[in-house]
């Protein structure tokens, strides 16, 4: 079964609170769910249509996947779909599935039904019969009854041969933009088949839709709890401030290191990497690489969090302990917690930062350096 895929992810998602395609669902970004579904089903290529300037964000979201590339979309859906079609490299008779990023729970069976329908139709879309009674309203009052017989709820992806959908768009002369590709093909004289949809293939439109999707996933997926630990040390040297847990703290010394030497974030990065058995911070950001000289440790922590998300996992809570005689950590502890919570998209009560001295003993007690240790709890899906 040969097909190409297009995912439309260029919208603002304002009704869902904005940027819904990048938000986490079941431990990984909404966009990644759709991309994995199409690629795992055997897509020869996948074009992801994003807003101009969002290419780097897409690269982070889809890290580790292959056969995909991005293209900038337009102001309306039709422009974005046209951009996606133009970016394809397949032939004119290739089957093309066009999907909304906002419908993440795409099942392989739906894809198979769509491709099969193209043997006898010019296009195909998954649909569900309308089950609820329908009413027409005006000024907050019921104004009439709408018969539901013959009414269907349209879903995506929608499937077409490449030359069919391109010709239909080229012939579209209406002043208003089409609502979907099936309408374009039908207006051009094409026959569009309805195939069995999937109730789980819901569109994430409003904030409450995310809660419903999370509930669906929690019933379908078994998770295991994994714990990782991290430890880091840096020596003191001349300076006027020190970076600790993402916060610059005034001090009469600084920590010496290849990056910004933030021991707290380094330990926490190692804890996250340890929880998913992905080595340590040096494997991903070698101190011998000049690229990371003076780099903010925020980058290291975000990378580890993205690896967790790529596994379909989620971070439950983190705990960092700083070991030093000076500087005093308590006045900055709340800011450190807030910074880490922001970086990891965690609630504040899931982030702990604390400090202790070594009672004058050892290298920390002698003021030669600072140590940090961290623990992270992560939940990841259990492989079938």
Lay out the secondary structure:
Blueprint: E1 3-9, E2 24-25, E3 28-29, H1 30-40, E4 46-50, H2 55-61, E5 68-72, H3 77-87, E6 95-100, H4 108-117, E7 123-129, E8 134-138, E9 141-146, E10 152-154, E11 158-161, H5 162-171, H6 181-187, E12 192-196, H7 207-220, E13 223-238, E14 241-244, E15 247-250, E16 253-255, H8 263-275, H9 281-284, H10 298-310, E17 314-323, H11 333-344, E18 351-356, H12 362-365, E19 369-381
Parallel strand pairs: 1-4, 1-6, 4-5, 7-12, 17-18
Antiparallel strand pairs: 2-3, 6-11, 7-10, 7-11, 8-9, 13-16, 13-19, 14-15, 17-19
Helix pairs in contact: 5-6, 8-10
Spell out the key features of this protein.
384 residues; alpha/beta; 12 helices; elongated
What does this structure look like?
The mean pLDDT is 92. Strands 1, 4, 5, 6, 7, 10, 11 and 12 form an eight-stranded mixed beta sheet that branches. A five-stranded mixed beta sheet has the order 16-13-19-17-18. Helix 11 links the parallel strand 17 and strand 18 (351-356). By secondary structure, it is α/β, with parallel strands linked by helices. It contains twelve helices and 19 strands. It has helices spanning 30-40, 55-61, 77-87, 108-117, 162-171, 181-187, 207-220, 263-275, 281-284, 298-310, 333-344, 362-365, and strands spanning 3-9, 24-25, 28-29, 46-50, 68-72, 95-100, 123-129, 134-138, 141-146, 152-154, 158-161, 192-196, 223-238, 241-244, 247-250, 253-255, 314-323, 351-356, 369-381.
